[in-house]
Amino acid sequence: MKLSQSRVTEQGHVPLARFVIDWIQFLNEHGEWTQPRPDFATDEWLRDMYKHMVMTRVFDQKAIALQRTGQMGTYPSSLGQEAFATAIGIALQNEDVFVPYYRDHGTLLMRGYDMSDILAYWGGDERGSTTGPKQDLPLCVPIATQITHAAGAAAALKIKAQDNLVITTIGDGGTSKGDFFESLNVAGAWQLPLIVVVNNNQYAISVPREIQCGAKTLAQKAIGAGIHGVQVDGNDPMALYQALLEARQRIQQHKGATLIEAVTYRLGDHTTADDATRYRSNDEVKEAWLKDPVKRLQSLLASLNLWDEQREQDWQKQCAKSVDAAVKRYLAREPQQPAAMFDYLYEQWPEVMNEQLDLLIDKIDRMSSSH
Amino acid sequence: MAEAIQDTHELVDTVLLEAVNLAIHWEMQHDENVVVLGEDVGSNGGVFRATDGLKQKFGFKRVMDTPLAEALIGGLAVGMSTQGLRPIAEIQFSGFIFPALEHLMCHAARMRNRTRGRLSCPMVLRAPYGGGIHAPEHHSESIEALMAHIPGLRVVIPSSPARAYGLLLAAIRDPDPVIFLEPKRVYRSSKQSYENNGEALPLDSCFTLRQGKDITLVSWGASIAETLQAADALAEHGIDAEVIDVASIKPLDMQTILISVARTGRCVIVHEAAKSFAVGAEIAAQVSEKCFLNLQAPVQRVAGFDTHMPYFQNEHYYMPNVQDILAAVDKSMKEE
Ligand SMILES: Cc1ncc(C[n+]2csc(CCOP(=O)(O)OP(=O)(O)O)c2C)c(N)n1
To answer: Any idea where the Dehydrogenase E1 component domain is (chain A) (predicted)?
Structure first.
């Protein structure tokens, strides 16, 4: 985005500001460079990105299979959004604060979450929310509320004069909420160390991006808030990573917060409870598969002689092994005790709650004797 | 006006979810001011399919997919209803209603009062609520008491297909704002036959589902299913339970409940919401205020715990079941 003073327009108006939204892409859908290879994208880095993306996909497939076989609850797939997850995962430094939304398992895996915990969360077990870096916030289901928490966390870092920063994520639908506007607004007003990354996967359940909002890009929502906005190809992990690097630099140079719109596509259903064939055509989905981020990076790696069939098979096997082991751990868990619903309700147990706990104990007795 | 395929006064046999659809359909057909708005209500027909087919039939001017913004949905409905429309706004799950509540509390609920009758908000805010469908976090809470606490609102909860049909028609025609909470656990659980004839059921009144002389069981929404099962089980033991479906949580028809309790002398209230400060507490308080001398035993409440609704692996420990109700009845019957 560039702001510039300029001369009188044809209509005789004097523009006070104009804006431009930049688009970043390194790799097109055929896996070919669209601009010179960036310095950070070493052979090792590229291979690493690819491996994380495949791991995310294998995990995702397994999670869906678990739901379909009644071993897990409703699950939001990240199929087609692996580059998004992985670029954020790589860009996050240990001491940063990550404030995710519910579709971010790929990033969580890179953030050190135990895979079996992620399964537990979607399997309806509170213990799934226990891992991860201690400063990170848990998954967020109510849309857009996380952005306000991220702004708060960023304000805290600023007040405490820490030099880490906050990265948060949201879907395209979520950008319609007041919480989103309000957070960007305060990020601009207070110059917060905040990076907001929009996963524009084109749909909010059935509602397509075009009827969510009339603006040409979602990135331009930054302009009104006085922060930087940029749009990137979200299926190109280098593009998103580059934008994240620049955003970090802007914060370090006291130039304020950034909104990054990553353009992706949700290849699967919204969640396992959704049926996307009701609102979009097969042709559209077929077309989107041509931009598959995993295939794209694989083509690049192959053209650079960094990847081949053998490596692919080995890595697929490795991924399946890790995922299967996690599934075993998830399924082998002793069920959580019913009284766990009282744990962590308050740090100081209010004695007056004992009566309620007794009611539950009676109930457990009743339920076990009726079997 | 669109062709009246639904307008045949035919006997239908549907689940609760379809009853919601039929009621909206009927009213849209008979009142062109009725519009539907919300997230995914159009092409997708709502995530539960409550608005299925409406967009195809009535077009996008009357069935509007809104941006993902609940405060907007609440506020739009307020504005529309002041200008002669009768919006039926859907909040996808009641757990996401909070941003809309500001508009309900601060504006819809007091528009008539504040403008001394010049403006009003004849709108319905529909939302599926309650647990028991293995949903993720924030999808299963029962928050009817929060809404019932707001003056000027109606809060309505149907428990069967026929009552969903009749009460929703009443809600749409009501000149004031109504929050219509749909117990999603029983959305598809059983069919009931009723006439699709556009006849509304009364708001602000309870329904006595079963008459009995020994004890009064009071409940609403999905818990009615367990309450009726408990009444059947009690009958086998020679206990004759009266079952009352509250249906309109606010304004609350205490008369029906009091008359019943005065006769039976005993009262058990069953609800899914957390126990403290809930609608059950209000009913219990009024029973003790107004028919204390008829009571043969303290009023019992069977309810959820004062905890968060647990993630779904343990939700069945949270929600009232038939044995809980029988245990409470037992306690009540033992007292003399
Ligand atoms: C406040 C709120 N409203 C509604 C929902 C139900 N819901 C869950 S996901 C979703 C769509 C979100 O779309 P988007 O923000 O584009 O993210 P995506 O899921 O596509 O990644 C909706 C409406 C919710 N979780 N929270």
So the answer is: 50-330
Q: Of A266, A311, A329, A366, which is the active-site residue? A: A266
Domain ranges of chain A: 22-336, 338-370
Same domain, B273 and B160: no
**CATH number attached to the domain at A22-336:** 3.40.50.970
Asked if residue B1 belongs to a domain, the reply is no
Does residue B258 share a domain with residue B188? no
Confidence of residue B8 (pLDDT cuts 50, 70, 90): low
Which tens digit of pLDDT belongs to each residue from A44-96? Answer: 999 999 999 999 999 999 999 999 999 999 999 999 999 999 999 999 999 99
Token pair for residue A126?
A: 């509170």
Q: Which of B67, B138, B314 sits opposite A341 (nearest CB)?
A: B314
> Is the shortest distance between the CB of A205 and ligand 1 below 6 Å?
yes
- The CATH number of whichever domain residue B272 belongs to comes to 3.40.50.920
The domain boundary residue, chosen from B167, B196, B225: B196
Confidence band for B3, pLDDT divided at 50, 70 and 90: very low
Q: Is A117's Cβ below 8 Å from some Cβ in B?
A: no
- Residue in A126, A211, A360 closest to B305 by CB: A360
The model's confidence at residue B232, banded by pLDDT at 50, 70 and 90, is very high
Tell me how many degrees the CA angle A349-A351-A354 measures, rounded to the nearest 5. 95
Residue numbers in A near B71 (CB within 8 A): 177-178
Residue B5 has pLDDT above 50, yes or no: no
Domain that holds residue B21: 10-196
B185 and B271, same domain (yes or no): no
Say whether A359 and B305 touch across the interface (CB within 8 A). yes
A190 with A221: CB under 8 angstroms?
no
Please write the tens of the pLDDT for every residue from A137-195: 999 999 999 999 999 999 999 999 999 999 999 999 999 999 999 999 999 999 999 99
- Which residue among B196, B226, B249 closes a domain? B196
For residue B139, indicate whether it is catalytic: yes
The sheet with strand B154-156 has its strands ordered as B63-65, B34-38, B86-90, B124-129, B178-183, B154-156, B248-250
The 10 Å Cβ neighbour count of residue B39 is 28
Work out the average pLDDT over B45-58.
98
Q: What is the CATH number of the domain that holds B89?
A: 3.40.50.970
Contacts of residue A353 in chain B, CB cutoff 8 Å?
306
Peptide bond into B251 cis (omega under 30): yes
- Going by C-alpha positions, the residue among B323, B318, B314 that lies closest to residue B134 is B314
Q: Per the CB < 8 Å rule, is B308 touching A178?
A: no
**Closest partner CB to B305 (pick from A176, A178, A356):** A356
DSSP letters spanning B86-125? EEEEE-SSGGG-HHHHHHHHHTGGGHHHHTTTS-----EE
CB of A205 less than 8 A from some CB of B: yes
How many distinct structural domains can be found in chain B?
2
Mutate to test the pocket of ligand 1, among B43, B44, B92 (most ligand atoms within 8 A of CB): B92
